Amino acid sequence: MRMKYKIYGDRNLIVDVLEGLITIDDLFRHNKYLVENEDVKNIERVLTNVVNAEFNFTKNEFDEYIRKLVERQITPVRWAIYTASPKHVVYSHFIKFTEKYRKSIKIFSTIEGCINYLEVLYNIDEFNDADFISMD
């Protein structure tokens, strides 16, 4: 499991990357870390990359995670989820269909779709920037 994020203040964007085997505890820790970070509170755009993640949790566990997410997290104006897996799409839709996130989340299989939706410049190579903050 590997989780990291980077804030691009000049673009009003936070990018987070989840890789490897991801458990529900990892998601809770990831969310708590971001919610408690003062620098994240005013960011309006989120790009979440789960292309190289493997989800290892049940639907019931994920439902509980969504419930906590809705309670705690500030709602981004736009949240793009970048994925390559049908399983990721299904789980992403569970979040998307909650009232709080219905209008802000979109799911994409290309980085171009993400950046067009977010209306921000971002290059796929930036996922490899050395200054991401690790949440491992």
Characterization of the model:
Helix content is 33%, strand content 26%. The chain has 4 helices and 7 strands; from the N terminus they run E-E-H-E-E-H-E-H-E-H-E. Strands 1, 2, 3, 4, 5, 6 and 7 form a 7-stranded mixed β-sheet that branches. A hairpin with a 4-residue loop joins strand 1 (2-8) and strand 2. The radius of gyration is 14 Å and the shape is globular. The mean pLDDT is 86.
Describe the structure in brief.
This protein is α/β, with parallel strands linked by helices and 136 residues long. The protein has helices spanning 24-35, 59-72, 86-96, 111-118, and strands at residues 2-8, 13-22, 45-49, 53-55, 78-82, 105-108, 133-134.
